[in-house]
Amino acid sequence: MRAPGAPVALTCGEPAGIGPELALGAWRALRARVPFFWIGDPRHLGADAPWVEIDHPGAAAAVAATAMPVLAHRFAGPAVPGQPSAENARGVIEVIERGVDLAMSGEARALCTAPIHKQALIDGAGFAYPGHTEFLGVLCGADEVAMMLVCAQLRVVPVTIHIALKDVPGALTPSLLERRLRIVRDGLRSRFGLAEPRIAVAGLNPHAGEGGKMGSEEAAIIAPVIARLAAEGWCITGPLPADTMFHAAAREGYDVAVCMYHDQALIPIKTLDFDGGVNVTLGLPFLRTSPDHGTAFDIAGRGIANPSSLIAALELAGR
């Protein structure tokens, strides 16, 4: 059970990336308006950072107005901006695990995760997951999870996520598509208060297959699933040509667009709101949000990283 007034837990992510400076930027913008605490090594925040160490999440609200609350987690080594270190990989993973434990216990009202660098985790700790989303599902025993990207103008969900484009047709099955759609509908109802969400489903091929002339997946896989769910009373349409789904008038007709692969979903939302998009994991027993960008090693440590996406992620978690 969630503790009354529990704050949001924010993991440090890759300490050599922009995560630490974004955390401080988000704290300066939000202060006590959205109480959160940062889990990481205070050494990675910089010598002049306004932070205070707390012993437990419940202490965050009392100090958040004047300093960023930090639940300290010591790493093996220092962090050099722009240079990920294999020796810190285990610490990054442990922080994620600690954040999940706090969200599962109710000490944190939600989990917000800063970007990780998967190659550093693989090289340094044998990380065996394609990304955050899949790892979080395993940690809390979720049978199925889905990645939803959210901004003010659009919500999108990719059915297949971190796989090569050439592997998408083989991975796309009626069972997978239906499971993803059910998670999306349940998540929009329970997390976003939409009693009957309007779901638009993209096709896989150009022009949604052009009646079979440009591919058969629409007729063989996608359309039968949509018809079956529509018969259950769902408000669902498709398969739709992806190139005509995302202009302003089209977006007025649905609450979420379900796409067949990663870039089909992420290109439109990052084009609409690159700095304000939020990643939400559906299917977990707690709410998880994340900024919709990576570690940005090329600008890490320069003080120019934009915290807008992290601020939006923390605000959404707080709501």
Mean pLDDT over the residues:
94
Low-confidence stretches: none
End-to-end Cα distance, whole Å, is 17 Å
Separate helix tally: 11
Give the overall shape, derived from the CA principal axes: globular
Strand content: 15-25%
Number of domains: 2
N-to-C SSE string, H for helix and E for strand: EHEEHEHEHHEEHHEHEHEHEEH
CATH domain class name of the largest domain: Alpha Beta
Rg, Cα atoms, Å: 20 Å
Largest sheet: 12 strands, mixed
What is the total tally of β strands? 12
CATH topology of the largest domain: Isopropylmalate Dehydrogenase
Please state the second-level CATH architecture of the largest domain.
3-Layer(aba) Sandwich
What oligomeric state do these chains adopt? Answer: single chain
Q: What fraction, in percent, of the residue positions are helical? A: 25-40%
Strand line-up across the major sheet: 3-4-2-1-5-12-11-6-7-10-8-9
CATH superfamily of the largest domain, please? Answer: Isopropylmalate Dehydrogenase
Estimated structural class: alpha/beta
Overview of the structural elements:
By secondary structure, the protein is an alpha/beta fold. The chain folds into two domains: 1-143 and 285-319, Isopropylmalate Dehydrogenase (3-Layer(aba) Sandwich), CATH 3.40.718.10; 153-272, Isopropylmalate Dehydrogenase. The protein has eleven helices and twelve strands. The protein has helices at 19-30, 60-63, 89-105, 118-125, 132-139, 168-171, 174-190, 217-231, 248-251, 262-272, 308-318; strands spanning 8-11, 36-40, 51-53, 68-72, 110-113, 146-151, 154-158, 198-202, 235-240, 256-259, 278-282, 288-291. It has a twelve-stranded mixed β-sheet, with helices on both faces. Strand 6 and strand 7 form a beta hairpin. Helix 1 packs across helix 11 (308-318) and helix 3 (89-105) crosses helix 4.
